[in-house]
């Protein structure tokens, strides 16, 4: 993984970009923090915010021309936030006299400030704060310049005097009635380490760098009226402040321009969209300034503009309180650790790779690809926590084994001749389809492992329906069947090696069958095929249903409203979104669209094997999705249904409504256990072979035991949580019985047995009564205990 | 891994009908090798691990080693 390239991406994230109000404020007052304090009614807190950025904030706060307001994005939604008015009322209600300044030693250098107007006063104050000995020269007998024009136009003379009086109290030497002229400059330059020239007018014009305010005489800095005669008050204040920064850099000999691109007014990369924002008018003033309540109400209109589109949408980022920029930094850190604990592992394995962040990000940053590459890199370097995906990968191996894997051509005409009799041939489209058998496989129905595990009993009916409708329209194309796993678990686990092998096998089957079109019923298969098998033409089962017609089932048309939860794996496939909605409407239901749907759909929590690596995070995904919807949910991915039902939401797979099994609103829904799922896959293969191909599976593959296991719901739930299969429990018990390898508890008469199966040791505590075995506990560890 | 491991138990080895004794046992996972006191049958050497130990301390150590 190229970590530098990754960091490059994180730099594009605009999460930390300031809102436009801050960017257009010459001194970058933190408007969001400020209004948040006002909203809380904390006026002194709000005043602190002003004080930290606005020089002479008690005065400027009352007369600032507030360029921020003009920029505020709220202007299109009821009117800009009246930041200027808020500042006035904050000064009024939140100002308190500062503590007596500490007189610190001023030994960084001697600076002359020429001109006691606003910018000169600010420069003097700022330089004093930085530790310089400042002498301020003013030709009149008072400081403040233009500030005095605001007396009884926003300011009181008393306030101005008090505030400017502080300047001398700080220890700045103020020389009144001293007019410095151009010809005096050389002398000043000799006496002082640097000069700030903030006079109104000057006889000679200098070239001044607009960023640093430095003139061609390197110790001479010029701001205020000379530099910009029409400056707003806040701009003058800003120039004094920035010149002070330059003087400090000049004297300490640090780079004059480094990281100063964004001083003063700049353009923010944040373009906060307000098209979804409900308009809300500004709070009117009932007196000359806002009352505290009015100010709080006005402050609450602020949108607190910040890009957090991805965080708002993703419970994973919320759980780890992380934004893509910091996420990427932790990934880089995690990748670089040579010795020590990789603390980000769990986080990296808790992203569902759902792609929502990318879909909502204004600059197109997505974590899914990054997480995928990271997991692959962890696997390659042998740093992927083994337990995170072990169960899912074993389950995938099960799907690829002979227990489930199967490829069959459509039953031949010859083999099916028993069906070709009247009335069968008249009423069964399937029989007619077989009758038209061409021997050439045009389509391969690929239901996928998860649908086969949880919606087992639909698969045969769907297959027959497909043969019927497809052969009707396209007599040349037979429909075959392919049971297997697309490899999504390996992909999610970062197992490029397994993925490669699996994809290769699928490709070979496709070649061997004469390159048929795959009919896919699972959203994960659809995305895996698109990503790894682009040469294979695919179509979703739902599109086939939508265009060729639905199975004829005696349907009482549903009248209810359902909300559609789109599958995240196919967020970019509008054809599937479309056909699902068509089917739902054809069946008489109305559709409620969720806020996050189609290309912006949310993940149910199964994606990325999060349900395996961090079950709590997966549950959070499901809960988050569930609370978005009021009516029952309609899904078209088996895993989505599983996750939502487990989160106690009524959810139907689209096949449930197609086959009219959206039954019995009262009974709680139940999903098959992990063991059921494997058994269902075995059963499906056996049943289809028998029913459709008239084949008996050679060799009974299942071991048989001469004991009967009894497992309560409670223990079943515990086994689910611990990823322990019934088959494993059986093996432990069988071994303990045949070898008497077990412990006995004379008090409870329980037995306790263990058996290592592959890389896990399973333990079962049970009661034995004749051939009845009642399981009381099941647990496991991966650590190997060396006996002997 | 030593702290909370019981040194006495009601469990006995079913085959050998022996009370269990606490002894040093080797355990390993990934790159980790430890010796810990565990209860075992003195005759057939079968080692006893409780639910609390397996799903508690052992799991914690496993996870810790996986993140190394
Ligand atoms: S809504 Fe608030 S944060 Fe956004 S631009 Fe306006 S004042 Fe600034
Ligand atoms: S879970 Fe989805 S939205 Fe969240 S970071 Fe991962 S890919 Fe992005
Ligand atoms: S959506 Fe997220 S990743 Fe994209 S810019 Fe905003 S905060 Fe950054
Ligand atoms: Zn023994």
UniProtKB/TrEMBL annotation, chain B:
Q: Which GO terms describe its molecular function?
A: DNA binding
Keywords in alphabetical order: DNA-binding
InterPro entries from the entry?
A: DUF7479, DVU_1557-like
* Domain of life of the source: Bacteria
Q: Where is the DUF7479 domain?
A: 10-68
| Pfam families, A to Z | DUF7479
The entry's protein name is DNA-binding protein
Species of origin: Sulfurospirillum cavolei
């Amino acid at each position: 993984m190229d970590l530098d390239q990754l960091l490059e991406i994180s730099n594009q994230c605009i999460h930390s970009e300031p809102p436009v109000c801050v960017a257009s404020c010459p001194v970058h007052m933190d408007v969001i923090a400020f209004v948040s304090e006002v909203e809380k009614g904390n006026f002194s807190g709000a005043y602190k915010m002003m004080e930290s950025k606005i020089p002479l904030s008690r005065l400027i706060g009352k007369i600032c021309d507030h360029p921020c307001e003009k920029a505020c994005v709220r202007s299109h939604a009821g009117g800009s936030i009246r930041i200027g008015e808020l500042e006035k009322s904050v000064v009024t209600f939140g100002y308190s006299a500062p503590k007596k300044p500490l007189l610190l030693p001023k030994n960084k250098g001697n600076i002359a400030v020429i001109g006691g107007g606003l910018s000169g006063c600010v420069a003097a104050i700022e330089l004093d704060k930085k530790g310089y000995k400042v002498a301020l020269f003013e030709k009149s007998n008072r400081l403040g310049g233009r500030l005095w024009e605001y007396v009884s136009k926003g300011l009181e003379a008393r306030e101005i005097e008090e505030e400017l009086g502080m300047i001398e109290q700080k220890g700045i030497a103020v020389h009144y009635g001293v007019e410095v002229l151009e010809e005096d400059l050389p002398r000043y330059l000799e006496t002082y380490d640097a000069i700030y020239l903030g006079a109104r007018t000057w006889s000679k014009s200098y070239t001044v760098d607009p960023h640093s305010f430095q003139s061609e005489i390197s110790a001479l800095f010029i701001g205020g009226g000379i530099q910009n005669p029409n400056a707003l008050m806040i701009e003058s204040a800003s120039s004094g402040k920035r010149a002070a920064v330059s003087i400090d850099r000049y004297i300490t000999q640090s780079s004059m321009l480094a990281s100063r691109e964004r001083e003063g007014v700049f353009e923010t990369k944040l373009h906060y969209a307000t098209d979804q924002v409900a308009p809300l008018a500004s709070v009117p003033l009932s007196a000359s300034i806002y009352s505290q309540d009015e100010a709080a109400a006005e402050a609450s209109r602020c949108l607190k503009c910040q890009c957090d589109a991805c965080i708002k949408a993703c419970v994973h980022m919320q759980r780890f309180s992380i934004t893509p920029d910091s996420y990427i930094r932790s990934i880089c850190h995690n990748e670089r650790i040579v010795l020590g604990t990789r603390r980000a592992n769990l986080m990296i394995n808790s992203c569902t790779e759902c792609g929502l962040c990318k879909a909502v990000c204004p600059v197109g940053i997505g974590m899914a690809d990054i997480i995928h590459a990271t997991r692959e890199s962890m696997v390659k370097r042998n740093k992927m926590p083994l337990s995170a995906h072990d169960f899912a990968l074993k389950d995938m191996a099960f799907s690829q084994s002979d227990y489930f894997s199967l490829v069959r051509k459509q039953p031949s005409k010859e083999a099916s001749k028993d069906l070709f009799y009247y009335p069968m041939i008249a009423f069964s489209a399937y029989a007619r389809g077989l009758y038209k058998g061409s021997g050439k496989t045009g389509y391969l129905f690929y239901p996928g492992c998860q649908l086969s595990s949880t919606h087992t009993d639909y698969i045969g009916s769907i297959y027959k329906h497909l043969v019927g409708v497809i052969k009707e329209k396209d007599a040349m194309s037979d429909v075959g069947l392919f049971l297997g796993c697309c490899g999504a678990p390996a992909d999610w686990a970062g197992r490029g090696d397994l993925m490669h092998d699996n994809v290769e096998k699928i490709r070979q089957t496709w070649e061997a069958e004469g390159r048929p079109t795959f009919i896919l019923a699972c959203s994960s298969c659809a995305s895996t095929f698109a990503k790894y098998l682009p040469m294979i033409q695919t179509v979703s089962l739902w599109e086939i249903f939508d265009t060729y017609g639905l199975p004829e089932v005696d349907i009482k048309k549903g009248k209810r409203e359902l909300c559609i939860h789109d599958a995240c794996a196919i967020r970019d496939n509008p054809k599937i979104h479309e056909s699902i909605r068509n089917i739902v409407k054809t069946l008489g239901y109305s559709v409620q669209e969720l806020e996050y749907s189609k290309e912006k759909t949310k993940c149910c929590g199964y994606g990325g094997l999060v349900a395996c690596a961090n079950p709590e995070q997966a549950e959070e995904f499901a809960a988050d999705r569930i609370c978005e919807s009021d009516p029952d949910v309609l899904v078209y991915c088996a895993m989505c249904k599983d996750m939502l039902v487990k989160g106690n939401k009524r959810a139907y797979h689209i096949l449930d409504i197609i086959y009219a099994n959206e039954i019995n609103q009262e009974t709680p829904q139940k999903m098959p256990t992990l063991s059921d799922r494997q058994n269902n896959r075995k059963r499906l293969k056996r049943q289809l072979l028998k029913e459709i191909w008239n084949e008996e599976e050679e060799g009974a593959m299942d071991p048989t035991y001469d004991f009967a296991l009894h497992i309560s719901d409670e223990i079943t739930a515990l086994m689910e949580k611990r990823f322990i299969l019934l088959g494993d429990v059986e093996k432990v018990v069988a071994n303990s019985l045949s070898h008497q390898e077990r412990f006995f508890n004379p008090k409870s008469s329980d037995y306790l047995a263990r058996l290592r199966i592959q890389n896990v040791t399973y333990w079962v505590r049970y009661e034995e009564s004749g051939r009845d075995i009642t399981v009381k506990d099941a647990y496991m560890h991966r650590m190997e205990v060396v006996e002997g | 891994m030593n702290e909370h491991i019981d040194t006495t138990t009601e469990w006995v080895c079913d085959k050998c009908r022996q009370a269990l004794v606490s002894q040093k046992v080797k355990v390993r996972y990934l790159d980790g090798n430890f010796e810990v006191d565990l209860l075992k049958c003195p005759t057939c050497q079968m080692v006893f691990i409780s639910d609390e130990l397996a799903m508690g301390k052992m799991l914690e150590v496993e996870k810790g080693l996986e993140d190394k």
